[in-house]
Amino acid sequence: MPGYAIEAEDLKKTFKTSVGRAFLKKQAIIVNAVDGLSLRVGSGQIHSLVGPNGAGKTTTIKILSTLLIPDSGRALVGGFDVVKEPGKVREIIGLVLAPDKGFYTRLTGLENLVYYGRLYGLSRGEAIRRAYELLELVGLADEGKRLYEEYSLGMKAKLSIAKAMINDPSIIFLDEPTIGLDPISARRVRQIIRDLATQGRTILLTSHNMWEVENLSNKVSLIKGGKIVVEGSPADLKERLRLNYRIEVELLDSPAPAAKFQTQVGERGYPVITLETSQPSEDLVRLLEQLRWDGCRIGYVRVHEPSLEEVFEKVMTS
Amino acid sequence: MRSLNQLVGVFEAEVKTFLREAGAFLFMLMFPFMISFLTYGAGQALTGGAASPKQWLYQLIGLTLMMIVFTMTSSTAWFFRRGLMTGRLEYILAAPINPFIVIAASSISSVIFNIINFVFIASLGVLVVYGPHQLPATFLSILYLAAALLPIIGLNLIVGVMTLVFREPEPVTNAFNSVVAAVSGFAYPTTLLPVFLQAIGKILPYSHVVESTREILSGSIQLAAYSPQILLLGYLVFGLWVYKVGESLYVRKRGVSW
User: Fold this and answer.
1) A223, A245, A282, B187: most buried, per Cβ within 10 A?
2) How many Å apart are CA A179 and CA A145, to the nearest integer?
3) Nearest residue to A293 (alpha-carbon basis) of A256, A261, A266
4) Is B94 an 8 Å CB contact of chain A?
């Protein structure tokens, strides 16, 4: 699959579960966690999977990381089939499933990384060297000898990313890596993710933080009911869904324009013209020319770009 | 070499963790003494002082081995449960390692701690009852145990798979250990049991381990008599097979997230 680090075709995965409280009255139900999902992730890209809870994001990541076998469909990771060649896939991937899980609480951060290094077959010396390198990379160099149980959530998240890097993977799966983190820790984690992508690694990310997704991702796939409903770069998605920009122009002194434009009183007490448009450049120029012609003095001009959150809302509610 | 690195790495992590949770180790050390002294004291009281120190040793060794067996079963079940809860199991399953290496390393660390425990208790018991000339038998019994506990690792793998299915280790290990405790002759000769329970005891490896260890420690070694116990290694093969089937039919299909 040249050009694609990850390629999935018509993946399906169902889980059997039961409802009902009484043992004998339980009713079996089938949940279609992933329902015909197809996905292509370019090499060296940060690709985000976004969707509501239960949409199938984590199940998809678990299939791609060989933890779960799909009921049908095919997925290649780094050119290797996740069902037929799981061992080869495991060699080239890194995985974070939850930022605060996966470690021995009674071991230090360093010892935990060494443990994972040994799991990937490194010798003791190599594992220790690599662990120190990664602690430095994620900003935990001074905390490596503290017990994991003493770590804050932010430190645990950084250690999770270090763990995912222990085998120097070319493809990294990050399932909500900043969930529950304070803004400073989250920013640090995002910077680490950017750095990893700069090194040419492919990253498949899930997150509920739309701002984060918009700022990190080259491409976003919106997933709903176990399948991808729309995908593209954040800018593409906004354009394709024809989400409107909002233009605000504050008028300090307005001889006559109130009759032509709808205004409302702004935060500073002056009238503000608000205009929703899908062609912000053209409409803004036209508006400013008109105001100049009318002899208006302008306080400020603001252009609000539609956010990915609005894209998400539009897709999920449609 | 790679597998060895993996085995040693997991072993080190398990040992370090165990050393930092030493309370359980102390309990395992004290429990056989506590119960065997209790039964010995009761025996003395009931028989007017006629209870034999050899009966105390009989109980001490039986109870020590019972603790070893229970601890091995419990630590395997809890290995899986902790793996589920902490997410460690998912990372193991997503790493290029045969999960058996991880389980084997965890079991070996548990066996080594238990054998250290056994050395202390058995040496003390043998010293008191038979005198120092019999102490070399303790070391012979360690060699025997190192091999004899392998079938138990196999059975524990089955307990591990059941823990993954039922998600809770206690019901699984308690049910399993209850049967084992009843039919294995830890505290009384299995010949006192009804025939069908004796049969179950004979099929399982535990009663053979207990009886043979007692014999070795008392100096009546019959190596030829122990050779059929090689067949018990079938449990190791069976346990591995159950684990592989459980992994492909359950673990990789249902997942192991908590």
Assistant:
1) A223
2) 25
3) A256
4) yes
The whole-chain average pLDDT of chain B stands at 88
Q: Output DSSP code: residue A305.
A: P
Residues forming a β-bridge with A85: none
- When CB atoms are compared, the residue of A69, A95, A112 closest to B252 is A69
Please state the three-class secondary structure of B108-124 as a single string: HHHHHHHHHHHHHHHHH
Q: Do B252 and A67 touch (CB under 8 A)?
A: yes
The reply to whether ipTM tops 0.85 is no
CA angle B1, B6, B11 (to 5 degrees): 125
Q: CA of A121: which chain B residue's CA is closest?
A: B2
For residue A123, list chain B residues with Cβ-Cβ distance below 8 A. Answer: 5
Q: What is the pTM of this model?
A: 0.83
Distance CA A237, CA A306 (A): 10
Q: CB neighbours (10 Å) of residue A30?
A: 9
Ramachandran bin of A79, using left for φ above 0, alpha for ψ from -120 to 50, beta for the remaining angles: left
SS3 A205: strand
CB A162 within 8 A of CB A169: no
Strands A72-77 and A4-19: antiparallel
> What CA–CA distance (Å, rounded) separates A147 from A163?
15
Lowest mean pLDDT among A201-210, A254-263, B233-242: A254-263
| E strand residue ranges, A109-235 | 171-175, 202-206, 219-224, 227-232
- Residue A259, token pair as written in the block: 């009759």
Residue spans of beta strands (DSSP E) within A56-97: 72-77, 80-81, 93-96
Q: What are the backbone angles phi and psi of residue A47, rounded to the nearest 5°?
A: -115, 130
Strand boundaries in B122-231, DSSP class E: none
> Nearest-CA distance from A61 to chain B in Å?
11
Chain centroid to Cα B81, Å, comes to 18
Is the pLDDT higher at A26 or at B70? Answer: B70
Reduced to 3 states (helix: H, G, I; strand: E, B; else coil), residue B10 is helix
Residue B121, min C-alpha distance to chain A (Å)? 28
Which residues in chain B have their CB less than 8 angstroms from residue A93's CB? Answer: 94
Question: CA B37: distance to chain centroid?
Answer: 22
Q: Tell whether B236 lies on the interface with A, counting CB pairs under 8 A.
A: no
Element (H or E) spanning A11, and its range?
strand A4-19
Find where tokens 């899980």 sit. Answer: A101
Q: How far apart are CA B118 and CA B39, in angstroms?
A: 20
